[in-house]
């Protein structure tokens, strides 16, 4: 571990951190904040640089975090508060950030999680990073086995999405940038039934059998899924709502549905029944 003191915004490492934050430098992600950096420890993330202010080392929790990161990272650099403010993506910086290699994603990552029956959340053209992060957080909490974003969706590894997921992005198997039709074909090949969230559907989310392998597809915040996309899936569902409310935030809707899936699966397991088989071997 090498410790240096950075006092200039023009320092190469500070410029590099800003480029990663602004997604102008591929292959790296910016992880900022005490809690998020704590979540990164012990995962498969490869941390290259740690940037922190001196005040972090004076706090007991911060000192423990700094020691752990020092053992995991290639380099630790202390920087002034002013320089840290120039790289931070938050209004109230906590004085700690990491530059890590961008995690690998893809269909093979989903297929690697074979110890549990598939329950996958597919985010189609979701463009709000806070919503995407919240969906990932809920998906992991509800027992989902993986998540997918389609082409044109927000970057799950942007600073805002990472804060919303609060560590779930590092643990949940992910496939990013997939084509919609590609996801449907992948699911069909593995006998995973796709179900779209659609306010026009006549079936409630509680009427869907979630004990079989499933992929829940949710659409963009403003427009949802179009008729062609809904018809391409195996089934569709809606969440019953009292008028005049006719829609929910996509992250809230995803949470309602995923926890119904978790409830059904938990009840089936308690009854001593095996929940539907995992991915077939290919």
Measured on Cα atoms, how large is the radius of gyration? Answer: 21 Å
Helices, by number, come to 12
> Can you count the beta strands?
11
Share of β-strand residues: 15-25%
Percent of residues in helical segments?
25-40%
If you had to describe this structure to a student in words, what would you say it looks like?
The chain is α/β, with parallel strands linked by helices and 282 residues long. The protein contains twelve helices and eleven strands. It has helices at 12-21, 34-40, 54-58, 60-72, 81-87, 107-111, 129-141, 159-165, 168-171, 180-189, 227-232, 250-270; strands spanning 3-6, 28-32, 47-52, 75-79, 96-101, 119-123, 146-150, 174-178, 193-197, 214-218, 235-237. α7 links the parallel β6 (119-123) and β7. The longest helix is centred in the last third of the chain and has 21 residues, at 250-270. The chain is elongated, with a radius of gyration of 21 Å.
What topology does this entry show?
Blueprint: E1 3-6, H1 12-21, E2 28-32, H2 34-40, E3 47-52, H3 54-58, H4 60-72, E4 75-79, H5 81-87, E5 96-101, H6 107-111, E6 119-123, H7 129-141, E7 146-150, H8 159-165, H9 168-171, E8 174-178, H10 180-189, E9 193-197, E10 214-218, H11 227-232, E11 235-237, H12 250-270
Parallel strand pairs: 1-4, 3-4, 6-7, 6-10, 7-8, 9-10, 9-11
Antiparallel strand pairs: 2-5, 3-5
Helix pairs in contact: 1-5, 7-8, 7-12
